[in-house]
Write a structure and sequence with these properties.
Alpha-D-Glucose-1,6-Bisphosphate, Chain A, domain 3, 5-stranded mixed β-sheet, about 400 residues, alpha/beta, 6-stranded antiparallel β-sheet, TATA-Binding Protein, 3 domains, about 20% strand
Length: about 400
């Protein structure tokens, strides 16, 4: 099944990358390492992290979202001249990467950037292969969460395919996959799960919607509807193919990402949080969240609030007209193009903030990146100060 995710297998024969893989004391190496080697990649692993160990002795947190978790793999990549580091979390559903840039430095990519590279490559290649055409592209769809980068919306729009936002949690993406399956006439689909990926793709393009790619900013990705949850095994294979594609062009992955920014505009996302420990922490978090809903600011960091969405109180519909379940999440859209979301954590004593900035790339991408980063830093400073007054 995993090999059906490959769109251009020939790339792996001509442009395989040298990869350092770590499963962070978990299960990811069981499938990923032999699979990548079988496909022609040179794969090194971090010996100290190969062993499954629930104490996770070599890292503070076995989370590939966190750069320090990949340090040992990055050090090995520098020693051995590998181009890519791939790390999967212990239960192999999330994947993080570091890639070598044109200057030879290993840089971490965010979950938004990883997902955008894969979404763009898969759309582009499916059109190149003729799977998607002008005649059927209206039935193709990308699915992401509301807090995932809007760069993916710009990518989908450029290819003329649909994009659907869901609430946070891969179960909502999986629910869309079930919806698309159920839309196929029963006499056509038969035993759906016994059908090949090619067969189901043709059925979905004719009768329903064809899921091209889905993901969330927290390092979860999916490239087919055979698995209906985020899957690091599939993500590893899909990302390795994107790396081989970039190498076939003589480009690094950061250079390929910058080409996307040049075409679609520069998008930056920053995750922040305020921690409130102690017995009264949960009450403080709830009080702060409630204050945004009851008294939403009209001007934020010098920019007018143009749109306010309260996912717990308002009836909000997705792009397909489906009514969303109620969730404690708020969105503030600003007149200058910035926006942010607020969501209490369900597992930690934190209230989470997702900050978003964008700008046309212009002639000087480096200068654009700095301006957008500075604007989001200013926005976060304003939010911190405002939160103190709401306490």
């Amino acid at each position: 099944m995993l090999k059906t995710l490959l769109l251009q297998p020939g790339l792996l024969e001509t442009s395989p990358a040298k990869i350092v893989f770590t499963n962070l004391h978990g299960t990811g190496g069981h499938i990923n390492v032999p699979m990548l080697r079988d496909l022609g990649f040179e794969v090194l692993t971090v010996p100290e992290q190969d062993l499954q160990d629930g104490r996770f002795p070599t890292v503070d947190s076995p989370n590939p979202e966190n750069g320090p978790a990949l340090k040992m793999a990055i050090d090995l990549a520098d020693k051995e001249g590998a181009e890519i580091v791939i790390g999967t979390d212990p239960d192999a559903d999330r994947m993080g990467v570091a890639v070598r840039d044109a200057a030879g430095k290993m840089v971490l990519l965010s979950g938004n950037q990883i997902g955008s590279l894969m979404a763009w490559y898969r759309l582009k290649t499916m059109f190149d292969l003729g799977w998607l055409t002008n005649a059927n592209r209206s039935r193709a769809v990308l699915v992401k969460t509301f807090v995932t980068t809007e760069l993916q919306a710009a990518i989908a729009d450029s290819f003329g395919v649909s994009l659907v936002d869901t609430l946070t949690g891969f179960k909502y993406i999986a629910a869309k996959l079930r919806k698309y399956e159920d839309a196929i006439p029963a006499d056509k689909k038969g035993d759906y799960r016994s059908l090949s990926e090619e067969h189901t793709r043709k059925l979905r393009l004719e009768f329903s919607r064809f899921f091209v790619f889905g993901g969330e900013e927290s390092y979860g990705y999916l490239g087919s509807d055979a698995v209906r949850d985020k899957d690091a095994n599939g993500a590893t294979l899909m990302f390795a193919e994107v790396a081989a594609y970039a190498k076939s062009l003589g480009k690094t992955l950061p250079e390929l990402l910058d080409e996307l920014f040049a075409e679609f505009g520069y998008y930056l996302e920053i995750g922040k949080s305020l921690t409130m420990e102690g017995a009264d922490g949960a009450a403080k978090i709830q009080a702060l969240a409630d204050s945004y809903a009851a008294n939403p600011p009209e001007v934020i960091d010098g920019s007018e609030v143009t749109h306010f969405r309260d996912f717990a109180a308002q009836d909000i519909y997705d792009q397909e007209g489906d009514l969303l379940p109620k969730e404690k999440m708020l969105f503030f859209d600003l007149a200058d193009g910035r926006f942010f979301a607020v969501r209490p954590s369900g597992t930690e004593p934190k209230i989470k903030f997702y900050l978003y900035g964008k700008s046309p790339a212009g002639d000087d991408l480096a200068a654009t990146k700095k301006v957008v980063a500075d604007n989001l830093a200013s926005l976060w400073k304003w939010i911190e100060e405002d939160a103190k007054g709401r306490g």
